[in-house]
Amino acid sequence: MIRVNNVSMCYRLVNDKLMSLKAYAIAAAKKELKFKEFWVFKDVSFEVKKGDVVGIIGRNGAGKSTILKIISGVLAPTEGNVETHGNVVPMLELGSGFDFDLSGRENIFLNGSILGYSEKYIKEKYDEIVKFSELGEFIENPLRSYSSGMLMRLAFSIATVVEPEILIVDEILAVGDEAFQKKSKRKMLNLMGGGTTVLFVSHSIEQIREMCSKVVWLEDGRLRMIGETKKVCDAYQEFINPDSKSNIEKTQFDADEIRKHCRDVLFVYGRREHNYYWRVAVEREQLLATNILSGEVDSENLSADLMAQFRAFVFVECLCDEAVLSFIKGIKGLHKLVLFDMSDAEDIQRPLLEKAFRYVDGIIVPDQRLGEMYACYGETFCNPYVALDRIAQLSTWASYDRDVLPNIDPETIRSEDMLINYNRAKTAKEKRESEGYRIGCFHVDWNDKKYDAVRIKIISYLESNDTAWLYTVCNESMTSKLFGKISDRVYALSCMEWSDMPRTYSAVDIVLEMLEEGRRQAKDYCSQIVAGLVRTPFCIYDITEENYHIFQDTEKAYTMERARLAVNSGASLSGYIRKRITQNFAIVIDETDAEVLIRAKELAQFLFSKGFDVVFINENQINSEFPVICKAEKYINMKFDNAIATSWKSYCFIKNYTDIKNRYYLTGVYQTDQYDDGDYSKFAANQTFYPTGDIQYIALDEKVSRIMSERYGGTYMTLTEFLCGF
Amino acid sequence: MEKQSVLDKKKIILCIFIYFVVTIIFYYAAYERICYIEYQSGVGGSDGYLEELSDGTVVTQDICFDVDYVYEIGISVATFMRTNTGRIKISLEDENGKIIAAKTIEAEQIQDNSVEDLPVKKTVGDGIYTLKIISEGGKKNASITLYRNSKVNYLGHGYSIDGRKYKGTLELNLCGGINKRLSRWYWPAVFIAGAIMLAVLCWTAEFAQGGGKNILINFLDNISKYWFLIKQLVSRDFKTKYKRSVLGICWSLLNPIMTMAVQYIIFSTIFRQNIENFPLYLLCGSVLFTFFTDSAGNGLMSIVGNASLISKVYVPKYIYPVSKVLSTAINLLLSMIPLLIVVFVTKAPVTKAYLLIPFVIVCLIVFCIGMSFLLSSAMVFFRDTQFLWGVMTILWMYATPLFYPETIIPEHFRFILDLNPMYHYVSFLRVIMLNGVSPYLYEYVYCMGFSLIALWCGMIVYKKTEDKFILYI
Q1: Cα(B67)–Cα(B80) distance, integer angstroms
Q2: Interatomic CA distance for residues A660 and A653, integer angstroms
Q3: Tens digit of pLDDT for each residue in A311-331?
Q4: Taking CB atoms and an 8 Å cutoff, what residues of chain A touch B236?
Q5: Among A99, A101, A683, beta carbon nearest to B244
Q6: Which residues of B touch A21 (CB under 8 A)?
Q7: ipTM surpassing 0.85, yes or no?
Q8: B233-251 pLDDT tens trace
C-alpha cells in the first residue's frame, strides 16, 4: 500500500540566509556560497500494508512531520522514493486554503477541491458535511464571521467526509467543544476501523497506544525501531523517561534559589525605630498572604545591586540624602515601581519626595485627605490599615502578639470605644512586658500526629521570642522529646492547674470571636478597604479534639479570604503593586514536546501566582488540559508584553506579532533540530538560522543549556535564571 | 472502481469538430491573408502637380493592375496650403465602364500633401481599369490639385485631364495582393492534418485503454483530475477580488474605460499624436497590456502567496500560476466589453476579422502562463524579483507603443519592437479592430511563436526547480 524505500532527506543550508539576488550574486562571485548539509534522516525504509494504522513517534525534530510530508507528496525526498497505491488524503493541517471572504458553502467546494475531491462528490456529500459541522444557517455567512470553533468544525467535516484509501494525520484528533471532540474522535476511529490505511503522528503516546497497530520510531536521523505498538512504545517511553523524570523532580524551579534572587517589594527604612515599623510590618505580612515576597533594608545599606532584585520599592521615613536620591533615580532607569509611604504634611521624608517626585509612581497615605494632598507627586494609594479612625481597633488585635503599641497620640482618638480599645491594648502590652508571653495549650494529646502542625508552629514561635513560654497539659518526661531545646520554657500543667489559669489564656472563644469580627469587617470594607489585618493570635490555643478543626478551618479559610479580598479590591498594597507590575505572557504550544509542555505548564502557574496574566495559545486545537487556553486567531489583536515559544513552530507563530516586547524560546535538548513549520522555509538546524537579536533562549535546565551552547553556540539561560528576572 | 478512460469516442469527435470549426472560421476571417501576398507598388515620387482642379474638371488615369487583388489605391493630393472648396469624387471603373469602387471627399477636409485612399477590396483581372477623379463645386483659386510624375508612365498609361492626354502618371500608391495560390492548398492541408490528428487520437485512446502512458494521456489525465481545482481557485480569486467593494465587478469594466479616458485626455491634448481613432488605439493596447502586467504580477506571487497550501497538501504546483493567470483572464474578457463599447461609440467598422480576436487572446494567455512560471519560480529563490519586475513592467510598457504611434521609433531601433512580444499581440489586435482586416500571416507565427517559447522556457525552469520550492518558501 505504502512502501518507503531508503528515503533520506537532506536540507542544504546556505550559511546565511541569502534571500536577495544581490547577496546571492555577491556570495556566488566570491565563491563563498557554502552549503551545509543537514540530514533529517537517512535510509528510512518501511512498508505499510492495507488497513494498518501506523503511528510515528519520536522527539521533536526527529522528522515525523517530514516523513508524512514526503509520503503525501508535499516534499520530494533527497534520496530514495515512496510508492503509494490509492488516493492519499493528507490531513497535515485542517482548513488549508480556506478563504475568509467566501462563505462556508463556497469554502466547502474550495477546500474540497484542494483535497482532491471531485465536483460530483462534493455536491453529493455537501449536506452531510454541513450536518456534521453543525453550522446550520451559518454556512452562508462569510468565514471571517466564524468563531474559531466553527472554523475547525467545518474544516474537520470537510476533511473527514471522504473514505480515503490512505489517510495521513498530523495531530488533529480533537477540535471544537467537548461534544464535538467526542464526535470527531469517533469519526476518526470509524475511519481508522473502516479499512483505511492510516499514518498518524501524535505527541501523545497514549493516543498512539490506543489507536495504532504498528509503530515507527524515528530517532537521531534514522529508523530506530519498528514493530508492534506495545513493544515500541514501551521502549520509547523508557528511552524518554529517565531523563525527564529526574528533571521534573529537580525543578519546582528551585524555588529557594529563585526566592534568593527575586523578590517583589523592598522596604527601605530611614529610621527603623520609629512608629512606622508596625504599620509596614502589617503591610509586609499582607503582601506575604498574597504570595508577594518582600525584603527590607535600612537606607544606609542601600546598594545598587538591590535595584535589579526587586520590582517595587517602598520608602519609609527616609531622609533626603544624595545616596537615597540617586538610588531612586537609578530605579526609575530600570522601570521599576517606586512608592513612598507618607503619613502627614510634616513627614520627615517630604523633602526627599519633593526632590524625587519625578521618579515616583505611587504614594501610600493613611487617609483620603492626605491622598489629595500628595496627589500632585504621583498616584496616591490610601492604606486603610493605618487610617486613623481604624487604628484603635486594629491595635487591640495587634497587641496580642506584637510588642508594639500603635504609635498614636491618645489625644487624637476621637471616639470613646477606640480609647477603651487603645487603653486595653496598652494595658495588655504593659502586662505582657512585665510577664513575658504565655502560650496556653491544653487538652492536647501531643502524641497524636494530627497536632504536629500546631506543635511546630509553637516551637518556631518560641524560638523567635525569647521571653515567651508555653503552658500545656503534658507529661513532663515528654517535653524534651516533643519540644527539643526550648523544653525548658515549656510548663507542664496538670488538669487541675489549667482550670485556674486566667480566662485570657484559655481563649479558643477569643480566637473565634476575633475571626468572626475580622470576617465581618472584611465583608464590610471589601469594596473600599480590606480589614484583613485580623491575624490569628496563634499563641493562644485551647485545642481539644472537638475544636481542633475550628483552628484549622478558620485559619485556612481566613487566610484565603483575606488574600482574595485584598487582591480583588486592589485596596491593599499587594493589590496595588500587583496591578502595577502585571504584564501578560503568551505561552504558545504547538508541536511541543511532552517534557517541555509540563514545564511550560508549571511556568505558567508560577507566573500566574506572581501576578502575571498568562495565556496559553495553541494554534490548532483547544486543549482542555490547560487552565487558560485560547485559539490563536482570537489573540491576533492582543498586545503581549512577553511571549514564550515552546517549539520552532510556535516561534514562527509569535514572530508575526510585532507588539510583543520580549520573545523567548523555551527549549529542550532536541528542540533545535526543527524546521520552520509556520513558514516552511528556514530550516533551523543551526544557530545561524535562528533570527538573532529579538529572541532569547531559555533552556530547561543547566544540562540542556550546556548541551545547546556546545552544539550551537550562543547563550541559553536556564529556567531558574529566567524566573529570577521576575 | 472502473477507471474511466480519459479519451473516449465522444471526446475525439468533439476534438475533430472543434478543429474543423476553427479552420473554417479562420479561412473565412483571414481570407485575404491566406490567398494573397501583400503587394504594394506606386509611382514613387512626384516631380510636379496638375493645375488646379476647379469645378467640373475630370482627371482620368488608366491602370493595368499587376496584382490579383486590390486592397486600396492611394492618390496624393495638394491643397496649395489653403482651405479649398467643393469636393472630389474618386471612382474606379473596369473595362466595361462599371464602377467597382467610389468615394467622395470634401475638399475642406483634405490636408496638404496627404494621401487619400480609395478602398477597393476586389479581385481584379488583366484588363485596363480607369481611375476617374471628378472635381465638383471647386471655386477658382480655392480648389485642390493632384501630384503627378511626368517621367514615369505607370503601368504603361498616361493620364488625361478633361479628355486631353498627358505624358506621365498621377502619383498613385497601390496596395493589393498577388494571388499566392495558397488557397488551393488550404483545404487539402486542413484535411490531411485533421486525418493525422484523428489517427493519433484514436491510437492514443486505444493505448490508454491498455493502461499505457504518454504525454497526451498524462496531460488529459491532469486536466480531468485538476480541472475542478483550477475552476475553484479561479472562482475564488475572482470572487474575492472585488469582495467588499461597493461597485464590485463593475470595476472590471470601469477600470479600462477610466484608464483610457485619462490616457486619452493626456495624450490627445498634451502630447498630441496624429493617430486615427485614438481612443480605440489606446484601449486596444492598454487592455492587453494591463492583462499582461496583472497576470504576470499575480503569477509572480502565486507560489510564495500559497506557501501554506503548498507545504500542506500535494497539488501539482503548476496549478497555482495557471489559476492566477486564468482568473486574470476573466477580467480581460470583461474588459473586452468596454472595448466593444468604444468600437461602437467611435463607429469603427466591425468586420469578419473580429472572429480572429480569440486567437490573440489565447496566445497572450499562454504567453502569460509561461511568464508566470518563470517569474514565480524566480520569486521563490530571490525575493528581489518582485521589485525588479515592477521596474521591468514600466520599462516594458514604454517600450511598447501603447499611446504613441509605432512610427516614431527610428528604423534602426525597429528590432526592439520586433523582439517585443507584447508589441506583436497589441498590433495584432489593432490591425483587427482599427483596420478591420486580418493581420499578415507571419504575425500569427510571431504571436504563436512567442507564446510557445515563453511556455516552453517557463515549463523547463519550473520542472527543474519545483521540488525545491518548499525548502525556500
Answers
A1: 33
A2: 12
A3: 788 888 888 888 888 888 887
A4: 99, 102, 106, 110
A5: A101
A6: 382, 384-385, 388
A7: no
A8: 898 888 888 877 888 788 8
